[in-house]
C-alpha cells in the first residue's frame, strides 16, 4: 500500500486536534486522523457543558457558535449534593448546555481545505531520522516530520513517548435516561462511599444524562450503587437509553503534564491538560492547541522547548486547581465550605 508524507500528522479530532488543524500555518502539509465518523455519535462520556473558561477560549479565536449546537434548556445554577453529610447547595454558573457531538463536528468543519482529514485508528508509530512512521489498523501508512497526539486520556502518543510515566486515571461512566423530573436541573455530586471524585447530571433535550468518575476496580458496581443512593435526593432514572464509558485522567502533580519530545507533541488531555477539580478539559484542549500552533508559526529549531515554555501558564493553572481540590474533595473541608454558604444562592 502506498504511503504518504506530511509535515505534521495530528492524531485525534476532538477540540484540541480540530483547533490545531485549523490554526497551523498553511506552509505545512497537515493530515488529521480521527476515529469519529460524522454520523456515529460522540462516544466519550461528557456532560456537554461549555464552561466559562471554554467560552473565553473560543472568544480568543473570534468565532461564533451556531445555535443548532445548543441543547435545551439553558440552566443557570448547579445543585451540589454531598451525599455523606446530606448537604445541598446551589451555586450560580454560566455554562452553555450543548450537544457535544455537534460541537465536535462543528469544530472539524472549520478546518481549512488545505488540511487533509481521514478516519482511522492508529495501530502504532515509530521514530526515524526524518520523523515518524504511523501505521493504521486498516493497513495505511503515513510518514511525517512532526507528530501531534491529540488523542485524549488513552493517548497512544503519550504512552509511547513516556512508557514509564503514569497519571492517576478513573473510569468515566455515563448513562442517558428519558427525563422524568418536572424541573430540569444540573447537579454535581460528591459521594465518598462510591468515589473520591465527582459525578454529574444534566437535563438535555428531554434526556437526563448522569455520569461520574470512578476508580477502575469495581467501577460499574460503584456507579450503580451511587444511583441507588441518589434516590432519596429525588433522582429518577428508569431504564437507560445509552451507556458510555472511557478513561479520564486526573493530574495530581504539576509534573504529571507531558508536552512532548523528539519532534512529537501532546495537546489537550493527552498532555494531561484537564482540570483535576472539575474534569473540565475543553478550555485546556483549545488553549494548548493555540499555543502549539503559535509554536509552529515561529522560526524555532527547538519547537519542543518553545512549546513547553508557552504552556507554563496552563501547567500553573492545573497546579492551582490541584491546590483547590482538598476544599472540594476532603469531606470535612467540603462540609465546612457548604455550611458557610459562601457564594451559594437561595433557590425558591
UniProtKB/TrEMBL annotation:
InterPro entries: FAD-bd (IPR002938), FAD/NAD-bd_sf (IPR036188), Geranylgeranyl_reductase (IPR050407). It holds the Pfam family FAD_binding_3. It comes from the Bacteria. Residues 6-44 form the FAD-binding domain. One of its GO terms (molecular function) is FAD binding. This is Dehydrogenase (Flavoprotein).
Amino acid at each position: 500500500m502506498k504511503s504518504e508524507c506530511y509535515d505534521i500528522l495530528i492524531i485525534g479530532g476532538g477540540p484540541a486536534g480540530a483547533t490545531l488543524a485549523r490554526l497551523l500555518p498553511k506552509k505545512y502539509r497537515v493530515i488529521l486522523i480521527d476515529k469519529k465518523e460524522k454520523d456515529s455519535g460522540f462516544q466519550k462520556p461528557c456532560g456537554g457543558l461549555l464552561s466559562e473558561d471554554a467560552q473565553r477560549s473560543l472568544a480568543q479565536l473570534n468565532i461564533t457558535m451556531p445555535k443548532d449546537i445548543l441543547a435545551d434548556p439553558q440552566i443557570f445554577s448547579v445543585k451540589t449534593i454531598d451525599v455523606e453529610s446530606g448537604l445541598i447547595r446551589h451555586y450560580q454558573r454560566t455554562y452553555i448546555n450543548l450537544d457535544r457531538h455537534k460541537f465536535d463536528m462543528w469544530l472539524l468543519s472549520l478546518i481549512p481545505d488545505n488540511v487533509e482529514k481521514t478516519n482511522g485508528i492508529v495501530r502504532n508509530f515509530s521514530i526515524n531520522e526524518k520523523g515518524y512512521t504511523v501505521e493504521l489498523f486498516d493497513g495505511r501508512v503515513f510518514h511525517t516530520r512532526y507528530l501531534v497526539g491529540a488523542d485524549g486520556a488513552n493517548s497512544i502518543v503519550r504512552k509511547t513517548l513516556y512508557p514509564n510515566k503514569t497519571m492517576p486515571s478513573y473510569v468515566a461512566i455515563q448513562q442517558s435516561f428519558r427525563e422524568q423530573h418536572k424541573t430540569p436541573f444540573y447537579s454535581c455530586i460528591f459521594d465518598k462511599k462510591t468515589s473520591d471524585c465527582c459525578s454529574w447530571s444534566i437535563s438535555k433535550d428531554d434526556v437526563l444524562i448522569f455520569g461520574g468518575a470512578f476508580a477502575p476496580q469495581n467501577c460499574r458496581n460503584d456507579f450503580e450503587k451511587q444511583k441507588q443512593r441518589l434516590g432519596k435526593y429525588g433522582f429518577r432514572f428508569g431504564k437507560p437509553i445509552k451507556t458510555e464509558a472511557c478513561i479520564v485522567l486526573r493530574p495530581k502533580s504539576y509534573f504529571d503534564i507531558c508536552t512532548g519530545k523528539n519532534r512529537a507533541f501532546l495537546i489537550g488531555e493527552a498532555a494531561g491538560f484537564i482540570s483535576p477539580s472539575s474534569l473540565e478539559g475543553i478550555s485546556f484542549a483549545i488553549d494548548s492547541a493555540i499555543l502549539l500552533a503559535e509554536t509552529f508559526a515561529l522560526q524555532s529549531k527547538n519547537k519542543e522547548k518553545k512549546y513547553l515554555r508557552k504552556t507554563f501558564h496552563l501547567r500553573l493553572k492545573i497546579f492551582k486547581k490541584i491546590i483547590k481540590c482538598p476544599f472540594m474533595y476532603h469531606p470535612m473541608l467540603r462540609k465546612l465550605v457548604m455550611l458557610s454558604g459562601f457564594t451559594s444562592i437561595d433557590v425558591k
